[in-house]
Design a protein that fits this description.
Elements: H1 7-10, E1 14-18, E2 23-27, E3 32-37, E4 40-51, E5 54-59, E6 64-70, E7 73-76, E8 79-83
Length: 92
């Protein structure tokens, strides 16, 4: 999956987390993602592409999935993920 980082994609880059913190889904700037589940780091990894408010995933095993951003929330595979705020000093 070839993807390009655009201003539209850039706003979604970062850590997305379920309310209970069990699933931590990081969208990286190189169009890759890394998902942790509980204490299992890098449980799933692959690439993604953002088109409008839609995100398409292809994990490294070939599995595909999609999701949708609505009002700052990522809905993906039955999960509801919220973007984790970056520490203020990380932006400097």
């Amino acid at each position: 999956m070839k993807a390009t980082i655009t201003a539209e994609t850039e706003k979604y880059i970062g850590m997305w987390v379920t309310e209970d913190g069990y699933i931590r889904h990081e969208l990286l700037p190189d169009n890759r993602y890394d998902e942790a589940r509980g204490s299992r780091q890098s449980a799933y990894q692959g690439s993604y592409k953002v088109t409008g408010n839609r995100i398409d995933y292809k994990d490294d095993t070939g599995f595909t999935a999609d999701g949708e951003f609505r009002e700052g929330v990522l809905y993906h595979a039955g999960m509801v993920l919220h973007k984790e705020a970056q520490p203020k000093n990380a932006q400097e």
